[in-house]
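Re: your question about Serine protease K12H4.7

S., sorry for the slow reply, the queue was backed up all week. Below is exactly what I fed in.
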Amino acid sequence: MSTMRTVIGLALALVFSFSLAHVAEWKNAKDLPILVKTMKELHRGPPKQTVLKRANVEEKWIAQKLDHFDESNTQTYQMRYLVNDEFQEEGSPIFIYLGGEWAIEDSMVSAGHWYDMAQEHKGVLIYTEHRYYGESIPTTTMSTEHLQYLHVKQALADVAHFIETYKSENSQLTNSKVLLAGGSYSATMVVWFKRLYPDLVEGGWASSAPLLAKVDFTEYKEVVGRAFLQLGGQQCYNRINNGIAELESMFENNRAAEARAMLRLCSSFDDKNDLDLWTLFGSISNIFSGVAQYQRYGEIEYYCDFLLSFDDDATAIANFAYWAWGYPSCIDARYSGTVEYYLWSIENFSASRPWYYQTCNEYGWYQSSGSNNQPFGNKFPALLYTTLCADVFGTQFTNENIGLSVSQTNIDFGGMAPEVENIYMTHGGLDPWNPMGHGVTEGATVITNASHCADFGSIDAGDTAEMRASKERLAELVREWLA
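Result:
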């Protein structure tokens, strides 16, 4: 049993560990606060594709206006993009994959289903990088003042300018049709781009696109719990539910010292501080979210076997959390540590800060414990995340103002009714994001047991019948759009 625990512990550490390149020089890995660490896991880019043959991918740059909507502002920045033109010929269609809150990389234009369709149609493959992410940083700091230029409308205008400029500067492509693809937030961008700039693109593929902005996203944890119940079984679900409930009870009933020891919390953790407790339990829930959001065949069952290998519920959760977080010593679960990290990121760029700003200023999507239909307790309300907005970005980010901004996003883009044509939307049936997107009744394809952005790979013998059918349907639509 101990050998199994060691092996699984190492696997968990690999699943949840982060490259230091993604946290810049923030001291070292053990000092990255757990709430930041677990949220980074939930906002990584789409799964890298397995590249089977070498492709000549070029890194290029284009000048973009810092503010597309202020004619008096003449400042520009350099936006990075990747190009694979191995199939290009006269009139080639342009297959653009949109970057989201991550750094772009070669595999998305070197392999996978998007690549295969580009090859079939002799298309040019392009991967654009979103402003404020990767190397496309338009300002010298990420202060709240500088982040005013980070907004999806600015990012969509970047894409519009890119398409017009790229076609005008490439004589073979002047009259080429353009298709867009994206995953998660960048899938949302595909839908919204078609809404704002319908004449610039022929069609698009939106995999796992949330459409409805919402402050208190209670449904997310419900789907995470359902994934563990459906794939891991009732015993596993009960262990999670009972273990977290017991840990919560220990903090409430004079057993805090015992709970702190079980969870290996640093001495700086203040169990009398609601924000510290909320940070701790939100981070525990995020471990399960990370597994469910990106689960592949057999993974949830594997982790459930691990959880059920312990003699009691609370011990199982405590050990699962410790191995998943991957710290060599004690766990930093302070709320103040999270604030310090985001403030440190003003000068020491990290993608966590700009994305968190976008949630405060545009989307919400705070994955709270506000529903009773999930097994992760009730100790991480949306108030944890909105309080963090004010503490990190300024007192103007009140609950009221955050709510107004989120409402404005739905007004601007139509919420669940974006009214676009030629956009193929796909979701995993166990993707925690799917409640914010279209379902079968709205015309989307929902793939049973699949999760977030799970359908970018090439058509493969390992695909389920539903997965294969969805990929084939998309290929048919692309043929129609390019006919």
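The radius of gyration is 22 Å. Residues 1-30 have pLDDT under 50 and may be disordered.

Happy to talk it through on Thursday.
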